[in-house]
Structures are given as C-alpha cells and as structure tokens.
Automatic annotation (TrEMBL):
<dbReference type="Pfam" id="PF06429">
    <property type="entry name" value="Flg_bbr_C"/>
</dbReference>
<dbReference type="InterPro" id="IPR001444">
    <property type="entry name" value="Flag_bb_rod_N"/>
</dbReference>
<comment type="similarity">
    <text>Belongs to the flagella basal body rod proteins family.</text>
</comment>
<dbReference type="GO" id="GO:0030694">
    <property type="term" value="C:bacterial-type flagellum basal body, rod"/>
</dbReference>
<keyword id="KW-0975">Bacterial flagellum</keyword>
<keyword id="KW-0282">Flagellum</keyword>
<comment type="subunit">
    <text>The basal body constitutes a major portion of the flagellar organelle and consists of four rings (L,P,S, and M) mounted on a central rod. The rod consists of about 26 subunits of FlgG in the distal portion, and FlgB, FlgC and FlgF are thought to build up the proximal portion of the rod with about 6 subunits each.</text>
</comment>
<keyword id="KW-0966">Cell projection</keyword>
<feature type="domain" description="Flagellar basal body rod protein N-terminal">
    <location>
        <begin position="7"/>
        <end position="34"/>
    </location>
</feature>
<keyword id="KW-0969">Cilium</keyword>
<dbReference type="InterPro" id="IPR010930">
    <property type="entry name" value="Flg_bb/hook_C_dom"/>
</dbReference>
<dbReference type="GO" id="GO:0071978">
    <property type="term" value="P:bacterial-type flagellum-dependent swarming motility"/>
</dbReference>
<dbReference type="Pfam" id="PF00460">
    <property type="entry name" value="Flg_bb_rod"/>
</dbReference>
<protein>
    <recommendedName>
        <fullName>Flagellar basal-body rod protein FlgC</fullName>
    </recommendedName>
</protein>
<feature type="domain" description="Flagellar basal-body/hook protein C-terminal">
    <location>
        <begin position="88"/>
        <end position="131"/>
    </location>
</feature>
<dbReference type="InterPro" id="IPR006299">
    <property type="entry name" value="FlgC"/>
</dbReference>
C-alpha cells in the first residue's frame, strides 16, 4: 500500500462520518416531533457502512451503503387531549434515543478527527521524505 492510498482511505472515512453526523443531526432535530412530512411520527434513521477497495492492493476504505429506519419500537404515551392522539387517546412519538444519538455523534466526530489527523501525519511524513533529498 502506498502512502497515497492513505489519503483515499481517510477521505472515504471522512465522507462516511460526515453523512453519519448529518443523520444524527436529523434524528436529534426530530426527537420531539410527533409528525413528520408524511404525517406519521418520525422514525429514527441509522447509517449502514460498507467496505470498499480504494486501490488495486488490499487497501480498504468505507462508504455509506445506506440509511435505514431504526427498527426499535416507537414511543407511545397516553394523552387523549393531544391533537395527534389516536381514537384510543395514545400519541405515537419518535423512537429517537437522545443519549444514543449523542454517543453516535461523539463517535462520528472522533472518527472524522482521527481521519484528519491521519491525513495530516501522512502529509508531514511525505514532506519530510521529500526534504531528505534536498
């Protein structure tokens, strides 16, 4: 694996983690919304990653394979006076767990920062390698 493959690997990681951060932001923004654009309660989303080849060697990167709905059950509360209550008086709320989303956000931001640090370290090593020949 060449040093230049590191840039491709880190770049793919940064793009994937950036999308993960966007999904987390969307989940947190809709954590208290009882309706979405479809008229139903918002369902949390999760990012699914997939490994990819970044060059002809064994170097692997990552990309987002898709964004799926979280299968965990929706929150249901009894509030017959709520305008969105069903005929039995229950209101369906999003299945967003704010603590889990904050953990996802911290994990994604640290992964992103690690990729940035990896790129900067590689750049420094390449610059030092070039300066040896001078």
């Amino acid at each position: 694996m060449s040093l230049f493959s590191i840039f491709n690997i880190a770049g793919s990681s940064m793009a994937a983690q950036s999308q993960r951060l966007n999904v987390v932001a969307s989940n947190l923004a809709n954590a208290d919304s009882v309706t979405s654009s479809t008229g139903e309660a918002y369902r949390a989303r999760q990012v699914v990653f997939k490994t990819i080849d970044v060059d002809t060697t064994t170097a692997k990167g990552v990309k987002v394979a898709g964004v799926v709905h979280d299968p965990s059950p929706m929150k249901v509360t009894y509030d017959p006076k709520h305008p969105m209550a069903d005929e039995k008086g229950y209101v369906t709320s999003p299945n967003v767990n704010a603590i889990d989303e904050m953990v996802n956000m911290m994990s994604a931001s640290r992964s992103y920062q690690n990729s940035v640090d990896m790129m900067n370290t590689t750049k420094t090593l390449l610059q030092k390698t070039l300066s040896i020949g001078q």
